Amino acid sequence: MPRSRDFPEGFLWGAATSAYQIEGAIDADGRGPSIWDAFLRAKAKTSPTPVDNGDVADDEFHRYREDIAIMRELGVKAYQFSISWPRIFPAGTGAPNPKGWGYYDRVVDALLEAGIEPFCTLYHWDLPQAMMSVGGWQSRDTAKAFAEYSGFAVKHLSDRVKNFITISEISQLVDGGYRYGSDAPGLRLTNAQVAQVNHNVLLGHGLCVQAVRANGRAGTKVGIADNAVSTIPVIETPENIEAARKAYREENARSLTAIQEGRYTDLYLKNLGADAPKFTAEEMKIISTPLDFTGLNVYEPTWVRARDTESGYEVLDMPKSYPHMAALWLQFGPGGMYWSPKFLHELWGAKEIYITENGAASTDVLNKTGEVLDVDRVLFLRSYLAQLQRTVSEGVPVKGYFLWTLMDNYEWSDGYAIRFGITFVDYATQKRTVKLSGEFYKDLIAKNGLV
Question: Whose C-alpha in 42, 279, 369, 395 is 20 to 30 A from the C-alpha of 142?
Fold first, then answer.
């Protein structure tokens, strides 16, 4: 008899990583420079202190078998990894690099040998530096180049990989890289330019979906990993729930809503005014090419209450005392794991949903006995997964969960200062140590439920 906190039979328990954050080996086998290589080298020239980078990271390029063995020991059923575009097309376009496939072929084959299903993300922020010659994502040419690279990748891998993710976190790559300059390529553009970059990335997503369909073998599926704004009713009254539902559509107008509906909301365009992006009806049709599944990256909450305003809701400011993890942006809000997939399903009829990222930032250290007792991460995961079980038990079609992340890695603008892994990495020796949270995840997978 199923327990009240069990997950459905066949629920897919996974782990997620991304290429630049773990691979290292930035010059191996003809890999070209990415925007992160250039961005961090430029930053190092002007910084009075050392700047972390992904030159070595977790040395996954050479140690992938060790980490696949860890996943197998933990019982992980699926692994979401990303391809480094500049490994395959060092110049962004043109002739592919034959040696670039060697690493990914080895990884995929080793995953399948271990009984772990590969999920492949085609773009997780490491744009070839060569594409900056046309302005990076400021240019529609980059969207077209992305589709060409993606079609090539899918043609190569879809004999073994059946699930592809177009892009990870559109709003973050746009804002971090083009609005605030905190991420590569480090630009600080005007609101109008940022809105256009956002549209161009959406177009790249849509063209990629079409490229996957055109080049994938029978049974190939394609989706996106979106860091949708997780709107949560501050008190679960009917009025606040409806306000949070409205907010989910409007707060995600620049990405998920446009993809699902093929249009920008009237309020989104009104608020942008003269800064609204230039687009055509044909481009919006491409952007809304139907998906086989939708991935949600669920981390922080956005609290909402009903108000008599044009939007019908109000987003509440966070008090200074609001609890958060080691990363200041990662505020604690397990309810997003219930409401985000629920609203996605209710608003747009999504029939196949994955949680493509969820995890906790901490300042983990080895204790005297060589253990990492990350009880804060265990608390985080148990709380969020309880809310996921709640939404699944109500019939919301969440098919799997990918924990961010398998191991500590290069965390973008945070460098190596914080850790998200369920496996501790000693960056000096590259020794791996499974944390308490890893043991928690292993037990959860074995039981297919919470205890």
Answer: 42
Which residues lie closer than 8 Å to 275 by C-beta, 6 or more apart?
190, 191, 192, 195
User: What are the two backbone dihedrals, phi and then psi, of residue 130, each rounded to the nearest 5 degrees?
Assistant: -60, -25
Identify whether 23 is a catalytic site residue: no
What's residue 451's pLDDT? 81
- Residue 51 — left, alpha, or beta (φ > 0 → left; ψ -120 to 50 → alpha)? beta
C-alpha–C-alpha distance, residues 328 and 128, integer Å:
30
**C-alpha to C-alpha distance for 246 and 188, rounded to whole angstroms:** 31
Could you report the average pLDDT of every consecutive run of 10 residues in the chain (451 residues)?
79 98 98 98 97 98 98 98 98 96 97 98 98 98 98 98 98 98 98 98 99 98 98 98 98 98 98 98 98 98 98 98 97 98 98 98 98 98 98 98 98 97 98 98 98 81
Strands 423-426 and 313-315: unpaired
Asked if 207 and 143 count as a contact pair (C-beta separation under 8 A), the reply is yes
Indicate the DSSP class of residue 331: B
Q: Which of 283, 300, 357, 411 is catalytic?
A: 357
Catalytic position from the list 169, 250, 251, 411:
169
- 3-state class (DSSP) for residue 181: coil
Instruction: Say how far apart CA 377 and CA 390 lie, in whole Å.
Output: 20
CA–CA gap between residue 399 and residue 344 (Å, rounded): 14
Instruction: Return the H-helix or E-strand segment holding 445.
Output: helix 436-447
How many C-beta atoms lie closer than 10 Å to residue 144's C-beta? 15
User: Which residues is 34 bridged to in the sheet?
Assistant: 128
The dihedral sign for the CA sequence 60, 65, 68, 74: negative
- State the pLDDT at residue 3: 55
Q: 450 near 389, Cβ under 8 Å? A: yes
> ∠ CA 226-275-264 to the nearest 5 degrees?
45
Is 357 a catalytic site residue? Answer: yes
